[in-house]
């Protein structure tokens, strides 16, 4: 197995990519995918720590995160569908009625 | 065959969550199978469930009881906060029936969703493991995303739900990353173990992994409590969501976020106090100031109350910055009183509102003082309490928070807090000016009071005034609750 | 009964609450007036009970303090709500409640038909409450509360007819002048408290405690300062030079108000206060000299003005100022008992005189109204010959006038003569004593003169009214005449309890009850005077005393004779006199132009300063700052709200930025 640092750097890069993706992309579904990317980067971090610390807690945590991410996906997509029905678009630039 | 040793599981500490989840699931089934148009009975049943849960919660006062290997702990702190959540859920349910019937979003799922959100909050309050706190936070957040977007026909509600979802999930990412880094630096996700590790290895405070982890956790919680600069979702989501849900959101989840925040910061990172209190100082000042200043120019009353809730989170952060028992007890007291005064104000807004979320501006309150004096007087009580004018609960809460800050030596923080309170009086009293001093053609005859809203208003006014005049008992309970 | 001393101020306070809150709804005059009067009568009954209980106690033990609760406790400053009953306060309580009850009864008839009937009685009860606090309070601060309260009620009642600008102005004048005096009172209070506390660690403002530490106050210096400060307050409250000009203007109020407040009770507060603080004054002969000189000068000065006035109430007002001067003269020569004695007798006959004048004005008003005349019902030049139409009023008025003139056998003689004798014989101030006596004697002459001038012009001679008007004159109802009769009886008999020893021996060994009664209160001062002051209280020959007594009687008779000559025998002499000395007459008539001098020196500059501060400073600077700050904050709000753009990306960007800044700050620390 590689040194811990490599895994941490990889997950940090993934996390940053996810973050930048959220900031840059306009399609709501793509934004959500970037969020999922962030969550998976966290999963990677947790698993690598779990392995190197010899503690199972990290992997248990990952299971929980994956479950929650799934539930979030379901809810998020439902919200996007509801929005699309009214607005005919899921471009977050169009999500701007509530402001100031 | 080898028998698997099943560890002894003590379910008693999480009995309230179990009861409430079961009732919520039961309500889902009942909703499907009972073919009734009006869903009011679901509200009644959920209130009954909440009462049962409260009874179970109260029985946990006294000695702390841990379970699941120390992952969950029912102590006085958790009991106090759980009661706050139950109250906020009950009050929100009381005022929701009239609203959903009027807006024609009378879907029975509203009540189970509120109950699930309450379960999530309760888990956050009693969680002693980062995983449990995260779970509670997510259960709460996901329920709230749905609740915020509950009114599928309204574009505003859709937008509120979507924004909340996107930004909430985003912040959850940060929170989780922080938790992961902390786990990595200390070797455990249990808060007690983290504290132990930090105590035995003080050099971990210089470990950048650990510090970044702690900061990211703080950022994650700051989003939920709507601290600046992570507050920007609050006005939009509060304005777009259905009014009873806004009421619920402004009280319960904020308190839950503070509960988890306090738990993690004070139990897990006590030795780094001087580090994160500086951060909190800046957060508190920014939050109070931004919330109050922008609220000055709002016309929509829900948006105004959203900014006001940002400001109130700022005041609570002042108590957090003080980081002494009085300050934390002050936060507990403040969350309790804030629940009642804010949901009370929203109850009146539900009454005054019209179909399609019309009639929601401050100007629409003109003439209420003459036509419906009792209602106007009740709203005045809440406005005075929010502004922090004696003899209301809001004043007592602010007094304790600021005096705790002064006790810790944060004189300037208290001064800024008081100045902000003074500025906030403007936008609260603006409503009163419209109610009493502006003439209007409106005769408010169509404002119909239901028994549920009447009960809610009565409870809120009574609590606000009683806590303002004799806060002693509740304050003592709060002080007992923070001895952990 | 002593335990219930707190009931005495409580009854009028209940009257205030009932009449104040519900008076507008109770339309029945009898009920409103009845409640108010019964309240004061109740206080009188309790006061009587206390008096009898005190009498039954041996001399040295005649003091009782009842503390209700501690009002202020701040560091070393402590003030209670408590009441002190001792011989001095018992006298004051009896006078205030007794005369007060009679005047409340009188008011029911006098104010009949007035709009704001309930308002009058509310204020009158409030005044009684404040005055009772003043005389029964056991510490300086509680006395000050009463002191201010009576000032307030004086303002409210003087301005009772608030539609008239002159009434409002008079009320304001009274209040402002009182306030100037109160400043002195507070300075005295603080100096007293600070001096004893700072130097001897005795931090108290309780009367008995102060008196018990009287030895700690050194002679001269501080005592003079304290005494003069308190006296400044007394000049305001009791209308002495220089703060007396409000009293004549105060006649704008209803006549019973003039009787109660400006004759019998409020204006005597200053005298009472000096009596209470006698142990301080005795340490400072300078302060006493100032008090005596001011008192004597005021007595003479006011008496001169009184001779030229034509309004019946104005004459009585200046007479009050003059008699108050006598009281201060007495206090100033160390004759504290004589001062309090004159306070009591003056209350009786002055109240009787004012109430009598009220009866006259009432009748005159009624008569003039009937013939649709615009003539002033208070101007004596419109009166004359009233004695045939108003016999009871005439008789009681005459009795009271004889008393004030100082004719033996009536109350005023005993008290006034005692004062003049003490002024002459007391060697406290050396040669100045004779001058003071001379002032007092001339003032007595003028007093007899102008009082009988009043009687002759009003009740005797040809009437100046028209036939029809004169026909409509009639005696006042019983509600009005009964108090008159009571007070007239007291004007006669009231003096006998204070008979000087000399006369007492003649009349079969009657002691001076009053002096004996007040002895414990002034014991310290009398001792001090006897032992410490040079040439104190030597033996004086009875012959000198008889002689001076005879001179007093002679002066009084001269005054009466003079008045008789000028107004009955040859009524044209006054006119010839005024046309012969027009400037002198105008000066006296215009009250020696004191009001005009005050206007020029104080009132107008103050008004100018106020106007400048208002327009120049308050509007421009203060309002500018306050509104400016609010405007700036609102401006910020308008700008900041644009941070909420509504775009998810912007919000997320904000969050990330915040996170990065926080992490960077910490990691690179």
UniProtKB/TrEMBL annotation, chain A:
<dbReference type="InterPro" id="IPR039428">
    <property type="entry name" value="NUOK/Mnh_C1-like"/>
</dbReference>
<keyword id="KW-0830">Ubiquinone</keyword>
<dbReference type="GO" id="GO:0042773">
    <property type="term" value="P:ATP synthesis coupled electron transport"/>
</dbReference>
<dbReference type="GO" id="GO:0030964">
    <property type="term" value="C:NADH dehydrogenase complex"/>
</dbReference>
<keyword id="KW-1003">Cell membrane</keyword>
<dbReference type="GO" id="GO:0005886">
    <property type="term" value="C:plasma membrane"/>
</dbReference>
<keyword id="KW-0560">Oxidoreductase</keyword>
<feature type="transmembrane region" description="Helical">
    <location>
        <begin position="6"/>
        <end position="24"/>
    </location>
</feature>
<comment type="similarity">
    <text>Belongs to the complex I subunit 4L family.</text>
</comment>
<keyword id="KW-0520">NAD</keyword>
<comment type="function">
    <text>NDH-1 shuttles electrons from NADH, via FMN and iron-sulfur (Fe-S) centers, to quinones in the respiratory chain. The immediate electron acceptor for the enzyme in this species is believed to be ubiquinone. Couples the redox reaction to proton translocation (for every two electrons transferred, four hydrogen ions are translocated across the cytoplasmic membrane), and thus conserves the redox energy in a proton gradient.</text>
</comment>
<keyword id="KW-0472">Membrane</keyword>
<keyword id="KW-1133">Transmembrane helix</keyword>
<keyword id="KW-0812">Transmembrane</keyword>
<keyword id="KW-0874">Quinone</keyword>
From TrEMBL, chain B:
<keyword id="KW-0874">Quinone</keyword>
<feature type="transmembrane region" description="Helical">
    <location>
        <begin position="450"/>
        <end position="470"/>
    </location>
</feature>
<comment type="function">
    <text>NDH-1 shuttles electrons from NADH, via FMN and iron-sulfur (Fe-S) centers, to quinones in the respiratory chain. The immediate electron acceptor for the enzyme in this species is believed to be ubiquinone. Couples the redox reaction to proton translocation (for every two electrons transferred, four hydrogen ions are translocated across the cytoplasmic membrane), and thus conserves the redox energy in a proton gradient.</text>
</comment>
<dbReference type="GO" id="GO:0042773">
    <property type="term" value="P:ATP synthesis coupled electron transport"/>
</dbReference>
<feature type="transmembrane region" description="Helical">
    <location>
        <begin position="409"/>
        <end position="429"/>
    </location>
</feature>
<dbReference type="InterPro" id="IPR010096">
    <property type="entry name" value="NADH-Q_OxRdtase_suN/2"/>
</dbReference>
<keyword id="KW-0520">NAD</keyword>
<keyword id="KW-1003">Cell membrane</keyword>
<keyword id="KW-0813">Transport</keyword>
<dbReference type="GO" id="GO:0005886">
    <property type="term" value="C:plasma membrane"/>
</dbReference>
<dbReference type="GO" id="GO:0012505">
    <property type="term" value="C:endomembrane system"/>
</dbReference>
<feature type="transmembrane region" description="Helical">
    <location>
        <begin position="255"/>
        <end position="273"/>
    </location>
</feature>
<feature type="transmembrane region" description="Helical">
    <location>
        <begin position="131"/>
        <end position="150"/>
    </location>
</feature>
<keyword id="KW-1278">Translocase</keyword>
<keyword id="KW-0472">Membrane</keyword>
TrEMBL record, chain C:
<dbReference type="GO" id="GO:0015990">
    <property type="term" value="P:electron transport coupled proton transport"/>
</dbReference>
<dbReference type="InterPro" id="IPR001516">
    <property type="entry name" value="Proton_antipo_N"/>
</dbReference>
<feature type="transmembrane region" description="Helical">
    <location>
        <begin position="174"/>
        <end position="196"/>
    </location>
</feature>
<dbReference type="GO" id="GO:0012505">
    <property type="term" value="C:endomembrane system"/>
</dbReference>
<feature type="transmembrane region" description="Helical">
    <location>
        <begin position="287"/>
        <end position="308"/>
    </location>
</feature>
<dbReference type="InterPro" id="IPR001750">
    <property type="entry name" value="ND/Mrp_TM"/>
</dbReference>
<feature type="transmembrane region" description="Helical">
    <location>
        <begin position="216"/>
        <end position="236"/>
    </location>
</feature>
<feature type="transmembrane region" description="Helical">
    <location>
        <begin position="81"/>
        <end position="105"/>
    </location>
</feature>
<feature type="transmembrane region" description="Helical">
    <location>
        <begin position="117"/>
        <end position="135"/>
    </location>
</feature>
<feature type="transmembrane region" description="Helical">
    <location>
        <begin position="6"/>
        <end position="23"/>
    </location>
</feature>
<keyword id="KW-1133">Transmembrane helix</keyword>
<keyword id="KW-0472">Membrane</keyword>
<feature type="domain" description="NADH:quinone oxidoreductase/Mrp antiporter transmembrane">
    <location>
        <begin position="138"/>
        <end position="427"/>
    </location>
</feature>
<dbReference type="InterPro" id="IPR018393">
    <property type="entry name" value="NADHpl_OxRdtase_5_subgr"/>
</dbReference>
<dbReference type="Pfam" id="PF00361">
    <property type="entry name" value="Proton_antipo_M"/>
</dbReference>
């Amino acid at each position: 197995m590689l040194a811990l640092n490599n895994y941490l750097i990889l997950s940090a890069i993934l996390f940053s990519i996810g973050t930048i993706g959220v900031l840059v992309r306009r399609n709501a579904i793509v934004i959500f995918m970037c969020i999922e990317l962030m969550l998976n980067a966290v999963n990677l971090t947790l698993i690598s720590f779990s392995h190197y610390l010899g503690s199972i807690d990290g992997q248990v945590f990952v299971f929980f995160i994956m479950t929650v991410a799934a539930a979030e996906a379901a809810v998020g997509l439902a919200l996007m569908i509801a929005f699309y029905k009214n607005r005919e678009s899921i471009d977050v630039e169009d999500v701007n009625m509530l402001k100031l | 065959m080898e028998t698997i040793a099943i560890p002894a599981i003590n379910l008693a500490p999480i009995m309230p969550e179990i009861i409430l989840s079961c009732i919520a699931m039961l309500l889902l089934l009942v909703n499907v199978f009972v073919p009734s148009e009006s869903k009011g009975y679901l509200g009644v049943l959920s209130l009954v469930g909440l009462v049962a849960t409260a009874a179970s919660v109260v029985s946990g006062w006294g000695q702390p009881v841990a379970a699941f290997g120390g992952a969950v702990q029912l102590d006085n702190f958790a009991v106090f906060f759980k009661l706050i959540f139950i109250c906020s859920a009950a009050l929100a349910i009381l005022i929701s029936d009239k609203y959903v019937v009027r807006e024609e979003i009378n879907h029975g799922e509203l009540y189970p969703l509120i109950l699930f959100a309450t379960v999530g909050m309760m888990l956050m309050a009693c969680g002693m493991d980062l995983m449990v706190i995260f779970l509670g936070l997510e259960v709460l957040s996901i329920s709230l995303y749905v609740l915020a977007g509950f009114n599928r026909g309204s574009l505003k509600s859709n937008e509120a739900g979507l924004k909340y979802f996107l930004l909430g999930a985003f912040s959850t990412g940060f929170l989780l990353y922080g938790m992961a880094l902390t786990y990595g630096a200390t070797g455990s996700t249990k808060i007690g173990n983290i504290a132990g590790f930090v105590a035995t290895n003080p050099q971990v405070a210089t470990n950048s992994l650990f510090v970044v982890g702690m900061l990211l956790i703080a950022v994650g919680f700051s989003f939920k409590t709507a601290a600046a600069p992570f507050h920007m979702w609050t006005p939009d989501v509060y304005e777009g969501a259905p009014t009873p849900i806004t009421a619920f959101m402004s009280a319960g989840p904020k308190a839950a976020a503070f509960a988890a925040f306090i738990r993690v910061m004070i139990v897990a990172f006590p030795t780094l106090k001087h580090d994160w209190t500086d951060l909190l100082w800046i957060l508190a000042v920014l939050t109070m100031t931004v919330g109050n200043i922008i609220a000055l120019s709002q016309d929509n009353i829900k948006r105004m109350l959203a900014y006001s809730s940002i400001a109130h989170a700022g005041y609570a952060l002042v108590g957090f910055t003080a980081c002494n028992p009085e300050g934390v007890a002050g936060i507990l007291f403040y969350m309790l009183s804030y629940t009642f005064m804010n949901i009370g104000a929203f109850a009146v807004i539900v009454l005054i509102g019209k179909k399609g979320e019309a009639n929601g501006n401050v100007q629409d309150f003109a003439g209420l003082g003459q036509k419906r004096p009792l209602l106007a007087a009740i709203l005045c009580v809440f406005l005075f309490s929010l502004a922090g004018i004696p003899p209301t609960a809001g004043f007592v809460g602010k007094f304790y928070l600021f005096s705790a800050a002064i006790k810790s030596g944060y004189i300037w923080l208290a001064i800024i807090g008081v100045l902000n309170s003074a500025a906030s009086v403007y936008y609260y009293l603006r409503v009163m000016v419209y109610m009493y001093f502006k003439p209007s053609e409106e005769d408010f005859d169509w404002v119909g009071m239901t028994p549920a809203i009447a009960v809610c208003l009565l409870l809120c006014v009574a609590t606000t005034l009683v806590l303002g005049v004799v806060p002693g008992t509740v304050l003592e309970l709060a002080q007992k609750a923070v001895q952990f | 009964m002593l335990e219930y001393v707190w009931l005495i101020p409580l009854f009028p306070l209940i009257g205030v609450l009932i009449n104040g809150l519900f008076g507008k709804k109770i339309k029945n005059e009898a009920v409103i007036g009845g409640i108010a009067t019964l309240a004061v009568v109740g206080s009188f009954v309790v006061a009587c009970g206390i008096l009898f209980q005190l009498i039954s106690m041996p001399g040295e033990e005649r003091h009782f303090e009842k503390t209700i609760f501690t009002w202020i406790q701040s560091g070393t400053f402590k003030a209670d709500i408590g009441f002190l009953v001792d011989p001095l306060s018992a006298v004051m309580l009896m006078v205030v409640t007794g005369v007060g009850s009679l005047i409340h009864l009188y008011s029911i008839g006098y104010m009949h038909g007035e709009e704001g009937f309930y308002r009058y009685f509310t204020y009158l009860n409030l005044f009684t409450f404040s005055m009772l606090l003043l005389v029964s309070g056991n510490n300086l601060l509680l006395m000050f509360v009463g002191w201010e309260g009576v000032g307030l009620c004086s303002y409210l009642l003087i301005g009772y007819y608030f539609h008239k600008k002159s009434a409002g102005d008079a009320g304001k004048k009274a209040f402002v002048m009182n306030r100037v005096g109160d400043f002195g009172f507070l300075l005295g209070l603080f100096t007293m408290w600070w001096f004893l506390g700072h130097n001897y660690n005795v931090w108290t403002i309780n009367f008995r405690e102060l008196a018990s530490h009287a030895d700690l106050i050194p002679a001269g210096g501080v005592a003079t300062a304290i005494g003069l400060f308190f006296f400044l307050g007394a000049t305001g409250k009791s209308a002495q030079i220089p703060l007396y000009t409000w009293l004549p203007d105060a006649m704008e109020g209803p006549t019973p108000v003039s009787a109660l407040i400006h004759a019998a009770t409020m204006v005597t507060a200053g005298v009472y206060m000096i009596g209470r603080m006698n142990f301080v004054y005795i340490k400072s002969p300078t302060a006493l000299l100032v008090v005596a000189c001011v008192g004597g000068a005021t007595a003479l000065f006011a008496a001169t003005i009184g001779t030229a006035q034509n309004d019946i109430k104005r004459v009585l007002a200046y007479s009050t100022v003059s008699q108050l001067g006598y009281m201060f003269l007495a206090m100033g020569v160390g004759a504290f008992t004589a001062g309090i004695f004159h306070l009591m007798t003056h209350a009786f006959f002055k109240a009787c005189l004012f109430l009598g004048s009220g009866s006259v004005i009432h009748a005159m008003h009624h008569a003039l109204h009937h013939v649709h005349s615009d003539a002033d019902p208070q101007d004596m030049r419109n009166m004359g010959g009233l004695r045939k139409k108003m016999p009871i009023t005439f008789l009681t008025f005459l009795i009271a006038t004889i008393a004030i003139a100082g004719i033996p056998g009536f109350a005023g003689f005993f008290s006034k003569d005692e004062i003049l004798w003490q002024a002459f014989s007391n060697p406290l101030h050396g040669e100045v004593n004779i001058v003071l006596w001379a002032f007092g004697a001339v003032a007595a002459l003028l007093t007899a003169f102008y009082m009988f001038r009043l009687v002759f012009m009003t009740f005797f001679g040809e009437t100046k009214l028209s036939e029809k008007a004169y026909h409509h004159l009639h005696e006042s109802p019983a509600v009005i005449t009964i108090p008159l009769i009571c007070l007239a009886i007291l004007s006669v008999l009231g003096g006998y309890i204070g008979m000087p020893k000399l006369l007492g021996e003649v009349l079969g060994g009657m002691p001076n009850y009053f002096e004996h009664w007040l002895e414990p209160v002034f014991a310290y001062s009398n001792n001090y005077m006897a032992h410490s002051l040079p040439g104190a209280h030597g033996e004086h020959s009875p012959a000198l005393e008889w002689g001076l007594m005879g001179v007093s009687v002679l002066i009084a008779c001269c005054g009466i004779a003079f008045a008789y000559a000028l107004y009955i025998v040859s009524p044209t002499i006054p006119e010839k006199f005024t046309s012969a000395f027009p400037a002198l007459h105008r000066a006296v008539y215009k009250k020696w132009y004191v009001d005009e001098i005050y206007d020029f020196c104080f009132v107008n500059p103050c008004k100018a300063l106020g106007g400048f501060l208002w327009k120049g400073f308050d509007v421009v600077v203060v309002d500018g700052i306050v509104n400016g700050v609010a405007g700036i904050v609102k401006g910020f709000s308008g700008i900041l709200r644009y941070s909420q753009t509504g775009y998810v990306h912007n919000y997320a960007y904000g969050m990330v930025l915040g996170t990065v800044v926080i992490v960077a700050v910490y990691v690179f620390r």
